[in-house]
Design brief:
Elements (H helix, E strand, L loop, with lengths): L1 H24 L12 H6 L2 H44 L1
């Protein structure tokens, strides 16, 4: 009888641990925030809002880096073209 109760207790404990892990890994993704989903944003926990804003800022920085690289490449092309034209004029 005691062994049966111990086994039930350990199974219940394992069940609770699995539920906690599932809740931790559950990710709520909201792409844009407007009046319609403001309540969803406010219902998130502080940590979830922080993580979402952190992910958004990382994505923004990545997009910004790519854009800066494109601008630099275009500037190099333009400056090479201008320098070649100046050489031809002389």
């Amino acid at each position: 009888m005691i062994l049966f109760l111990m086994q039930v207790f350990f199974n219940f404990k394992n069940f609770l641990e699995l539920n906690r892990k599932k809740k931790i890994f559950k990710v709520k993704k909201l792409i844009t925030f407007n009046r319609k989903n403001l309540n969803k944003w406010m219902n998130l926990t502080k940590k979830e809002r922080y993580n979402l804003s952190k992910q958004e800022s990382i994505a923004y920085l990545d997009k910004r880096k790519l854009l800066l690289e494109e601008i630099r490449k275009e500037y190099k092309k333009i400056s090479k073209g201008n320098s070649e034209e100046n050489v031809k004029k002389k």
